[in-house]
Amino acid sequence: MVEGQVRWRGWRVALILWLLGCSWLLSGCMLISGEQTTISLQEGAANILTTFVSAEGSDEYRLAVMPASSEAQAIVMVAVESGDMQIELIQPDGAVALVLASRPGAQVTRSGPIRSDEQGQIRYRLTARSARNGEIQIFVLP
Question: Are strands 107-115 and 36-42 parallel, antiparallel or unpaired?
Fold first, then answer.
């Protein structure tokens, strides 16, 4: 009887360690349900709009929306019905140019300069915690 309990305890510990390892691997992932994204590009300007039903996790995105190695003005808006959503615009050197965090039930807006990399891409990171019924919009203006 004691040997069976020790064996069961060993399996429980192994299962817990495996689940912790899986959660560590998924920590850089973003799970978004009901996502719809539209991107509109016109003469050096861009409008990126993403709506979603729910979001959890963190991920980084890259979009080619500007001429290579150029600077523009970004206007960022985020709104969620509940939970938390944060967006960070990231410069080509990895520095964070702008951070915007949501407030449940309200739209939050912020603007600032952003630079594109050698491929004309802008980078941004989204982080969500139990975010529901949200919207993220990024305007890039020359």
Answer: unpaired
